[in-house]
């Protein structure tokens, strides 16, 4: 099995900028060690990521946390 590589917000923005400069998906896959599908999803969600940067989100953030209700349900299931 391959190791899962999660990109930070700043890495995702960098990937988007490189794609805008006509860097191919294959090159991005090799550079960031992620799947082609993941590259595609990042490119499709680029507006969301750019808005996060403009709203001064933490650039080291890797994922959006789920809402509080989902976290409570997860905790109860775990217990």
UniProtKB/TrEMBL annotation:
Residues 70-79 have a biased composition (Polar residues). Residues 54-79 are annotated as: Disordered. GO terms for molecular function: DNA binding. InterPro entries: Homeodomain-like_sf (IPR009057), HTH_Psq (IPR007889). SUPFAM superfamilies: Homeodomain-like. Residues 3-46 form the HTH psq-type domain. Gene3D superfamilies: Homeodomain-like. This is HTH psq-type domain-containing protein. It comes from Rotaria magnacalcarata.
